[in-house]
Amino acid sequence: MLRVVAASCARHCRVFLAYIQAVTLKTQMNTFRLISHVPGRCLQRTQIKYGYCTVSPPVRLCWSCNRPVYNREYFCECNKIQPIDKNMSYFDAFGYFKPVVQIDTVDLARRMRDIQKQLHPDKFSRASPYEQKLAADAATFINQAYATLHKHVDRFSYILSLHGFKEEDLSSGSVNGDCDVS
After folding, report:
1. Which residues touch 147 (CB under 8 Å, ≥6 apart)?
2. Would you call 5 helix, strand, or coil by DSSP?
3. Within 13 A of 142's CA, how many CA atoms are on the CB side?
4. What is the DSSP letter of 94?
5. What's the sign of the alpha-carbon dihedral 156, 157, 158, 162?
6. What CA–CA distance (Å, rounded) separates 143 from 82?
7. 76-182 maps to which CATH number?
8. Per-domain residue ranges for the chain?
9. Which listed residue, 54, 119, 133, 157, has the most CB atoms within 10 A of its CB?
10. What Gene Ontology terms for biological process does this UniProt record contain (predicted)?
11. CB-based contact 115:142 (threshold 8 Å)
């Protein structure tokens, strides 16, 4: 990982440290992901070795304190559980940044335990009814994600569904063999 200093809009945000993680080298570092530990509201430019990023990371607002929360995070800085992002894939839920055909099931089980420690509904027994519902929804989503990713046949079907293939297309044999799933 490459450590850089990212400057954000002087009017609303502060300078913060961020880490840039290369997602793909297909376009010579043009595609990357910004992982920030101190959220900014209106990131304008992030200086990178090969140029500038003018796209801010996907952010939503906390339902409790209205601070920005990144889409792959389950909690805000105020420690309130957040609703599961509707666009989050099962791979995103477990920290895989792109669909992976081969997954180490031991590593997947470890990630599942780590997430369950944070999101288990029993941890929210004294929370508000809304937070209890969010925890139950998150636990259901994580359990579905784990069940799908744990079995290689289900995982592969899920990867194909992410690329627009439907279950009936796969079972009827109407899928063209020329597709590139990578």
Report:
1. 154
2. strand
3. 27
4. T
5. positive
6. 17
7. 1.10.287.110
8. 1-57, 76-182
9. 119
10. [2Fe-2S] cluster assembly
11. yes
Place of tokens 């069940």: 147
Beta bridge partners of 33: 21
pLDDT beyond 70 at 173: no
Q: How many CB atoms lie within 10 A of CB 162?
A: 14
Taking alpha carbons only, the member of 124, 122, 115, 109 closest to residue 88 is 115
- CB 119 within 8 Å of CB 140: no
Of 177 and 134, the structure prediction assigns the larger pLDDT to 134
pLDDT in tens, 101-119: 899 999 999 999 999 999 9
* Nearby residues of 111 by Cβ (< 8 Å), 6 or more positions away: 94, 95
> Distance (Å, rounded) from C-alpha 14 to C-alpha 25?
30
Residue with tokens 């031991």: 106
Torsion on CA atoms 52, 54, 60, 64, rounded to nearest 10: 80
